[in-house]
Design brief:
The chain has two domains: 177 residues, no CATH class; 64 residues, no CATH class. 28% of the residues lie in helices and 19% in strands. The longest helix is centred in the middle third of the chain and has 18 residues. The radius of gyration is 20 Å and the shape is globular.
């Protein structure tokens, strides 16, 4: 039996171009990463671009190709949350996917000023009750999530390695490059995004003993070397899933 699922989405590349073309954001966008310190020399973290991630990934992008020097980094922040709408819909479930550039200040994102945009609606697969706990059904449902997000974000992929020109809120045109930065999710969706076993930590392998942080490189290596049972029992990894981050350069869900 074959079932088709629809995933509705907009072109995220155009979405980001529309966000940056808004002149109302000209004083509330960071065009470069920076470090901020208090008078006493204490480090301050205020916006996304003031954090260590933006600085570190800017170095990585330039180290890969010196022609990228001077490009504006656009960190892609995504998020989703399956929601049940009960009023006048018959308790229908919706699975919206949102994106926002990490360059805009936090107050803009919270103030509903079109810096956080609905980019797609994910499919919610259903099956008969007798198949709900079937191992293959659960794998299909989780892989559909990753494959859908990968397809939605594909228009950004060429511009993660090759700079493009974008008009900014201050009226200037800048060369820019995308980077998948963060995914905002509650714990159940963190488990889904990171392809780990329910009850395990998305960041560390083991919370009870000293352990390394998870990473894309480590997970890929373990998946190649170990069987599915060992991955599940000893590392909390669902080894037969392909996360959407594997389809994009430098992307690491951890």
């Amino acid at each position: 039996m074959t079932v088709e699922y629809e995933v509705w989405f907009r072109d995220p590349h155009l979405v980001f171009q529309n966000i940056f073309s808004n002149p109302g954001l000209k004083d509330e966008v960071d065009y470069a990463c920076y470090h901020q310190f208090s008078v006493g020399g204490e480090r301050r973290y205020q916006t996304f671009m003031s954090g260590n991630w933006a600085w570190r990934h800017s170095d990585i992008i330039i180290a890969e190709d010196a022609s990228r020097v001077g490009c504006m980094l656009i960190p892609v922040i995504a998020g989703s949350d399956k929601t049940t709408v009960s009023i006048a819909t018959g308790n229908n479930e919706y699975y919206p996917l949102y994106v926002s550039p990490g360059n805009v200040h936090n107050n803009v994102r919270r103030a509903h000023r079109d810096a956080l945009v609905l980019v797609g609606v994910l499919a919610i697969p259903k099956t008969e009750r007798r198949y709900q706990n079937d191992v293959w059904w659960r794998k299909f449902r989780r892989q559909l999530f990753h494959s859908s997000i990968s397809a939605i974000l594909q228009s950004l992929r060429p511009w993660m390695t090759t700079p493009f020109v974008i008009r900014c809120p201050d009226g200037h045109f800048r060369r820019a490059i995308y980077e998948l930065a963060a995914y905002i999710a509650d714990y159940p969706e963190q488990v889904l995004c990171t392809c780990i076993v329910q009850g395990w930590c998305p960041n560390n392998n083991d919370l009870d003993t000293p352990s390394l942080r998870r990473s894309r490189a480590m997970t890929n290596t373990l998946t190649k070397e170990l069987d599915l049972g060992t991955l599940w029992d000893d590392y909390g990894i669902v080894g037969n899933l392909i996360p959407f981050t594997n389809d994009f350069p430098r992307a690491d869900m951890f």
